Amino acid sequence: MRQTTRSVAQAAAILGAIACGAPALAQRSWIAVCPLSEPQSRASVAAFAKIVPTLNQEPRCTNCHGGLDPTTSPIHPSVDLPSADNPGDDCTFCHDNVVNKTNGEESRWHLAPKFLEFINKSDQQLCEQLKGHAEGPCSDGSCGPWPMAEKFLGHMTDDEGGDNFTATAFAGTKGLSDHPIQKPRITHAELLALGHAWTDVTDGEWQGSRDCGCAPTKYALRVSAVTTIPGDDFRVDMLPVDIPIEFEDDGTFKGDSAVQMRGIDPGECIATSSASTRLVATGKAVQTWRERTFDVTIQSAQPTTSQASAHCPEGTMSRSFTASSRDVWKVKMQGTVGEVVSFAAPSPAPAVRITARVEIVKLP
Ligand code: HEC
Ligand code: HEC
Q1: Which of 83, 88, 314, 348 has its Cβ near the most Cβ atoms within 10 Å?
Q2: Does 63 contact ligand 2 (Cβ within 6 A)?
Q3: Band of residue 20 on the pLDDT scale cut at 50, 70, 90
Q4: Highest mean pLDDT (candidates 198-212, 233-247, 252-266, 290-304)
Q5: Which of 225, 222, 261 is CA-nearest to residue 347?
Q6: What is the C-alpha separation between 177 and 94, in angstroms, rounded?
Q7: What is the pLDDT of residue 82?
Q8: Is the pLDDT of residue 2 over 60?
Q9: Rounded CA gap, 8 and 349, in Å?
């Protein structure tokens, strides 16, 4: 019975731990958590949907973004596109009326590259494409993806100071000097307002990776723990459990899930113990290109109830056990999908060692 009693105590001890220990970043991938609430996510998708018709139906935009092949288009004089061994026709020979760059330099007319084409793409694809193109700077060689809303807005204003196609599109000249003006159906101010309405959903700053605000996203904290006594075969496992988390508008989150613990003690008795409780996860995440934090607190929702039984040579015994412990684990993470922290949680008894593990997972 000695071993059985101990396994019960240790099952309970798992939740009676206060985590300290420096979290170790075991794995790195570049998918940042999207800390948007469900209403924010829906509002973002809806705000972007109002921009889409300009991207894929407005000829002043689409004709440069995959809508027109200047070599075959019937509305276009046949032109010889430049290639490696062929200088081709100079587009500026005819398209010489492109609005200057913001710094006053001349802009040169050319098509958008294939990966920035707008036609035959879903709203979500376009949203992720724009956010991908607006990825931020890399300070330490580890580039994003940290899309920057200001880069997108800058593009909608004056192509971020580059060849000024946005202003040219709104001038309605097609970059030509002697051609009837055909202005877009939307004004530049209206398009900018739609752009701001989209980025304002998240307070003017984009969060998370490309998909954030382009489609719904869901995450969970995968939590597990192992309790051992060094030099003894005894262990209690808290099996991995996914705690789904939901974000509020301010990036705070909450979630809870039932957990089971199983103890195995290969002593002279065949002893098993189990305990169950609910784990509650709370925290706050910020995932912008400026700041990345993901602070998590995990605690048991109620005192742990444990049960144990032992099959010993002299008979079977069982008992129930309620631990009163309500202690907390606090961990600091970066907020990357797949990120893992393993840490030693202080235990109630000096001989007992508890190792806990928290992983951020993206749910389908
Ligand atoms: C003369 C051709 C041309 C026209 C007209 C044009 N674009 Fe572009 N666009 C480009 C090129 C080239 C790029 C890629 C280089 C760059 O970033 O400036 C681009 C890039 C973009 C991007 C990706 C940049 C980002 O930050 O996401 C967006 C969005 C965009 N254009 C929107 C528009 C809209 C909206 C219009 C119409 C109002 C338009 N473009 C008209 C050529 C054009
Ligand atoms: C010989 C003169 C000429 C040359 C060279 C030329 N274009 Fe054009 N392009 C035109 C004319 C004229 C139109 C307007 C056709 C129309 O709308 O009826 C036009 C229209 C376009 C449009 C549609 C713009 C819009 O807003 O709808 C695109 C895109 C375009 N050209 C791309 C190019 C590219 C890329 C090159 C260089 C490889 C090029 N063009 C070279 C004369 C030329």
Answers
A1: 348
A2: yes
A3: very low
A4: 198-212
A5: 225
A6: 8
A7: 67
A8: no
A9: 13
Taking the C-alpha atoms of residue 363 and residue 250, their distance in angstroms, rounded to an integer, is 21
Q: Is 75 in the pocket of ligand 2 (CB under 6 A)?
A: yes
137 CA distance to ligand 1 middle (Å): 20
Asked if 223 and 241 touch (Cβ cutoff 8 Å), the reply is yes
For ligand 1, the distance from its centroid to the CA atom of residue 30, given in whole angstroms, is 26
d(CA 50, CA 183): 19
Radius of gyration of the chain (CA): 29
The sign of the dihedral angle between the CA atoms of 101, 105, 106, 107 is negative
Poorest-pLDDT segment among 141-150, 195-204, 270-279: 141-150
Asked if residue 84 lies in contact with residue 163, where contact means CB atoms within 8 angstroms, the answer is no
Question: What are the tokens at 355?
Answer: 């190792």
137/117 Cα distance (integer angstroms): 23
**Ramachandran bin of 251, using left for φ above 0, alpha for ψ from -120 to 50, beta for the remaining angles:** left
Ligand 2 centroid vs 209 CA: distance in angstroms?
36
Cβ neighbourhood burial of 310 (10 Å; 0-12, 13-18, 19+): buried
